[in-house]
């Protein structure tokens, strides 16, 4: 809740902030995508969300590189929640797997499902977007931004 010097509380929509990063389809770029996401969160004053967001970005970008087709794009949307979106040109939707204890992979989307409030796939004309939505950490001004002092 922001104090603007007035006493009336009104509902308002937060403006959407966006950050987009086009990524080459190579495994080495995953670290740069994570670093870029953390830097963007820091600039938005949301560094406390860095750990979970970094893991979500890692898993979604890795899946896009491994199973999708270029171009690959990472987008962060900040409004009443934080949305991580990864676009790729493949129409194939991912699915949760139950990895066995000796499997080397297959846990990425399960991790995303545990860290995010919601996640899903949205198909587009050019491919698909895998998105994960996370609520703000309690106590952060954006978590209480629906009511504003005016």
UniProtKB/TrEMBL annotation:
MF (Gene Ontology): protein serine/threonine kinase activity
SUPFAM superfamilies (UniProt xref): ATPase domain of HSP90 chaperone/DNA topoisomerase II/histidine kinase
InterPro entries assigned: Anti-sigma-factor_SerPK, HATPase_C_sf, HATPase_dom
Keywords, ordered alphabetically: Kinase, Serine/threonine-protein kinase, Transferase
Any Pfam family matching the protein: HATPase_c_2
Protein name: Histidine kinase/HSP90-like ATPase domain-containing protein
Domain of life: Bacteria
Domain Histidine kinase/HSP90-like ATPase as annotated: residue spans: 24-132
């Amino acid at each position: 809740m922001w104090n603007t010097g007035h006493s009336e509380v009104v509902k308002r929509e937060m403006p959407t902030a966006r950050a987009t990063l086009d990524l080459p389809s190579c495994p080495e770029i995953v670290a740069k995508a994570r670093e870029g996401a953390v830097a963007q969160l820091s600039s938005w004053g949301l560094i406390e969300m860095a750990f979970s967001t970094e893991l979500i970005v890692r898993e979604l970008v890795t899946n896009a590189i491994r199973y999708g087709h270029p171009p690959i794009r990472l987008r962060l949307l900040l409004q009443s929640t934080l949305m991580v979106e990864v676009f790729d040109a493949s129409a194939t939707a991912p699915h949760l797997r139950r990895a066995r204890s000796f499997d080397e992979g297959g846990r990425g989307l399960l991790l995303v499902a545990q860290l995010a409030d919601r996640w899903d796939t949205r198909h587009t004309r050019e491919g698909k977007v895998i998105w994960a939505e996370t609520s703000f950490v309690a106590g952060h001004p954006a978590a209480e931004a629906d009511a504003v002092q005016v």
